[in-house]
Every structure is written in structure tokens, then in C-alpha cells.
Amino acid sequence: MDAQSLVLLADIVEAGNLSLAARRLKMSRANISYHLGQLEKNVGQELLRRTTRHLEPTELGLRLYQHGCVIRDELMAARESVSFLGSGLHGQVRMSIPTGFGNQIMSDWLIEFKRQYPDILLTLMFDNHVDDLLRDEVDIAVRVMSDPPAQLVAVKLADMEYVACAVREYADRHSMPVELDDLHEFPIVTSHVVGRELRLAAYKGETRLELALRPTLASENFQFLREAILGGLGIGVVPDYVVEKDVMEGRVVTMLRDWRLSIFGTSMYLLRMPGRYQTQAVRTLIDFVIERAQTWNQAKERVLNSGSSATP
């Protein structure tokens, strides 16, 4: 048994199958299979169970996988030390961020990050789905949800709240909703959900209610939803940051503010895989995003405390 074989085992376990491991390692599937077979022959036991969909480690395979991870991490740390000697911070980071918050809020953060660290290769994916970080080879993901997946390391970045709102001209022409059920009487402009009913969760103290929404205009593009709200197409049910500036400047009014509203979740989290080696570039981006989120939260609290939110 050699160290490289254990590292290879770790890569196979994380890929979930030989074909994906081969693509990631730029090796042939036959070569990967051969080395795995040799390792199993050397230890005298099966290390991975073949199922119809993926490979699962046996008890011994799991123990050797953990050793392989440690060896791989030490090798990566050593390479990073040599690479950084006498040079600035560099490396690669793959990050997945939500479409709405990513475009409207995080874009400025990440542009600033690139200005500070121009030698870091930053790859961004705008996506709202909670996918397998290992499968997609993502280092960091930012997602809105109520409870983060137990198998991931999660850092809470912010509370997320939706608002019911309308452009002032629309509100002046119509009697605005007073109760949650009143939303059924209006054209609704809100998020798009594929394959399931769109449900609005509403919280007031210990009370939690759910309301099925039937939007007349739905999209994953929150900038488009903002334009539709400003265009007077109905009552928007969108994250508060989408119309925050419009509310402050009086163009948009809000309603049902005694309820805390949520569609996809009540919090935003930064997610990463446990046990995976974090390069200095990844650690730097994580710290940067957490710091910017804290600043954004503080600014948002000042706005709320100033009583800037408008009502019809």
C-alpha cells in the first residue's frame, strides 16, 4: 500500500463512480479500475461496494478514505507553500451563488474581491439549486434555505425576508391587502418554482401560516421582477433587498409588514464540504464574504431602525 493509492481512493469515493473520477483525474477508466483493484488486492479486502448508481466505501474503505484525505491535504498544503513562496496570493476558487442575491448584492462584493486579489482565478455560477458540491466541484456555495443540509458545513450569512409590495401608483388605484388571504385577490409577481406548488410561509410571533400563491407573472430573474413591479403589473412578493432602494425613495410601498414572509427559506448560508482541504484562496474568499455579509446586515439594520419602510 502506498500513499498515492490512498489519495486515489479518496478521489474515487468523492467522485462516486469510476467514470467521473477518471474525468477529474484525466486518467482512463480502465487505469482507475486497475489501481483500485491493486489496492484491494494488497489489503486483501473489498474497499468499495458497487451499486447501480455509485460506489460506497466498506468499513475498511471508509477508514482508508479518511487516511487518503489527510495525505492529499498535506500534499496540497505543501504544494501551496512552494507555490506562494515569493509571490502574491493566487489559486482557483469555484463558487455558486443565488441568481437574485448574487446579481444584486454579491456582484459588487466579488468585483471588489477580484480587485484585491487579481491573481485568484474565480469561477462563479449563478444557481438557485442545492446540488452536490462534490459532483459539481464547487468549493463554496451560498444558498437561501431554512435549514442547511446536515452533511455540509454551514455559516449563516443573513436573515432573509420577503416583502409584499407594489409601485405607489398601483397602490393608489387599488385597495391593498390587509390580511394574508387578500393576496389571492390580486395579480402576484414573484419567484418561479419548477415542479411544485409555490407556497408562502408567514411568521408572526409563535404563529406560522402557509399560503399557496398562484402568480400571474413568475421568474427566477429578480431584476426582471423588480421592473415588473415598477411597471404596475401587480403585487410583488420578493426578497426585501430587491426593492429596498425603491422603498426608501418612495416609489414602492409595502404591506402586511406585521408578518415575516418567506418562500425559499428564512436564512442565507455559506456552504462547504466538511473535511475537504481549503486552499488559502478559498479561505480568503470565505472570510471576505462573511465580512461583507456582516457589513451588509449592519447597513440593513440601520435602514430598518430608521423607519424608512413605506406603507400605503
Question: Would you mind describing this structure in some detail?
Answer:
With 312 residues, the chain is α/β, with parallel strands linked by helices. It folds into three domains: 3-84, Orthogonal Bundle (Arc Repressor Mutant, subunit A), CATH 1.10.10; 91-158 and 267-303, Periplasmic binding protein-like II (D-Maltodextrin-Binding Protein, domain 2, 3-Layer(aba) Sandwich); 162-263, D-Maltodextrin-Binding Protein, domain 2 (3-Layer(aba) Sandwich), CATH 3.40.190.290. The chain has nine helices and 15 strands. It has helices at 3-15, 18-25, 29-43, 59-84, 99-116, 168-173, 222-230, 240-248, 280-305; strands at residues 48-50, 55-57, 91-97, 120-126, 140-145, 153-159, 162-167, 188-191, 199-204, 207-212, 217-219, 235-239, 252-255, 260-262, 267-272. The strands form four sheets. Strands 4-3-5-15-6 form a five-stranded mixed sheet, with helices on one face. Strands 11-8-12-7-13 form a five-stranded mixed sheet.
